[in-house]
Amino acid sequence: MAACMASKMAVAPSRGALARKASVKVARRTAIRVRAFAPAYDEVFDGNTGQMEKVLSQSVESVSAGGLEWSYRVGIPEEGTEAKPTKVLMIHGAGLNSFTYNKLSRELQKMGYTTFAPDMPGHGATSKPTSGFDYSAASYQSALEAFMTAAGIADVEDPVDMIVSGYITSQAALLLAAANPGLFRRVIVMNTPLGPGHKLPDPLAVYTRPFGMGKGAQADVYKLAYFGNEFTIPEETMAKYEAPYAGGDGEAARAALEATVTKNDLKALTSAVSKAWSVRGLPKVRVVWGVNDKYLGDKDMYKWAEDVRATFDCIRSVGHMPQEDFPQEAAKFIGAYLESELKVSALGSVRLGKVTKDDDYQR
User: Fold this and answer.
1) Dist. CA 208–CA 251, nearest whole Å
2) Fewer Cβ within 10 Å of end Cβ, the chain: N or C?
């Protein structure tokens, strides 16, 4: 692993940021207490022993928020593991669902973190509305805030850490964190469009073809999830990604994905995220980046990190989805960041360095 850069992070909030923090306190008064959850386990076949074994996983829960029915995964640390005080919110990208964080969540749970990973509207098992929700970034932003309140994790006295990855829905989450900084402690960005050189991959760009030539195109989730990665995604894992687009609800999911892409201009959305995060006094940001990403080059990431005073780690042998390619390594660096005191020496980075060696860096 090579650690690539550290910029001095801002400590004095701007007048605008203070105003946003004051407005968030309204959400504090209406927040709902998180109900008690228990550790969840999956039974998997162990080829070495020839027996089924219990593996730490997440429970699937539901909640009504903002006129939508939400499905979300909750990961609880195993009994005997000292629980960390901060909860972790994990936001997937367009076309995927909360299952994408299954393995990364498990690693964070082993460290003591409680995780919340919602299926964003139009995705997974969450509602796929045909009216009242237009799939714009603004709609995703307000819906996510409503979910956080209903799930009991919108609390300025107990802000969450947030991890985002992928396209559009993740950027909406970044806009929410910039607009409501009091709800978030730290933010981790994993392979999300950050600059003008970042484009939609073919499975999403198909919906933007001129003259409506892409209208009604099938959701190619296999290509979206696999082609940007460095390693093969197992068949049983890919089935989890493809499941929402099959069966009776498949057309609604496909239409929601098309609406998500066509309603949001990626260049404008990326620019909005950069502008929002150029303000001082926002949550601290760490980029954990798979530099073998076939979709998103690292040049724009370097520039974005410098512009918004973020720090970053680069994983050389990892592609577009670090949470799939190498969840253990991703979790190691995420955990180190979440537990750090945000001193440059503690983060161990160098300013704007290039990746020059493989994943052998020890925090």
Assistant:
1) 18
2) C
